[in-house]
Amino acid sequence: MLFALLLAPLASCAEPPRFDYYLLALSVAPAFCEDEPRRKRNYAQCRALSGPAFASLPLTLHGLWPNRTDRRHPSFCNGEPPGGFCRLPKLDLPADTRTRLARVMPGAADCLDRYQWAKHGSCSGLAAADYFAASAALTERVNRAIGGEIARHTGREVDLTRLRAALARNDPALLDAVTFDCQTPRTPDPAKRRPMLREVRVHFERDPATGRPGEPMAYTRAGHRHYNSGCPGGRAYIDSPLD
To answer: Looking at the chain, which runs of residues are DSSP E strands?
Structure first.
């Protein structure tokens, strides 16, 4: 009996926590890098940012997050590790997944992949290879749908209705799953202190059979009332990596 009691907590810990959907968070890298001067100096992803790189993939992977509709989102399901991102264990991924991830997640050069796995991937119930393969595939999908429209507006404003029209035209299933987040960077440059498109977030069902991301899910089911988060007048400035 004592042996069974000792094993019970271990069995419950092996079960992934309950969650309702996945949130794919995609960054607009120039706005991220502009937010703090130290990022341009210290982050490999910001030092490597160029016009051609941004044009080829305007939206880069921040993370794929298991989320709950009550907003009590699970995190660090294997325990919160101490120290910085690059002090976390290196992920054992297949070579093709590692190559694909390096393209869609430039932040992996700063060990963002290790942190995202520790905080969010560990709660998915998926193996790391499956989790990042799904993350890369979804990032590529959203870029096919609206990446070109974002790239065409580099250095100027775009109306969010134009981005939604691109979604409706190129991948209609994503239309009501996407929200746009604008923030004003904390840059010392006064000319840059304006609301910029910082992230595009996309909601996906959790496939109950596989635990992987399934079909796109309407953002209203996650409690959001509108696709516009912080973009004044429904317009967003697309920062240029060349400025």
So the answer is: 21-28, 59-67, 157-159, 178-183, 196-206, 213-216, 228-229, 235-237
Q: What distance in Å separates the CA atoms of residue 89 and residue 47, rounded to the nearest whole number?
A: 24
Instruction: Flag whether 155 is in a domain.
Output: yes
How many domains does the chain divide into?
Answer: 1
Residues 20-55: tens digit of each pLDDT: 999 999 999 999 988 877 887 889 999 989 999 999
- pTM score of the predicted model: 0.91
Q: Is residue 67 part of a domain?
A: yes
Q: Are the beta carbons of 88 and 159 closer than 8 angstroms?
A: no
Q: pLDDT tens-digit profile of 129-150?
A: 999 999 999 999 999 999 999 9
3 lies in some domain:
no
Residue for token pair 């988060």: 229
Q: Is residue 230 part of a domain?
A: yes
Give the CATH number of the domain where residue 43 resides.
3.90.730.10
Measured CA to CA, the distance from residue 208 to residue 195 in angstroms comes to: 38
Question: Cα–Cα distance between 243 and 126 in angstroms, integer?
Answer: 40
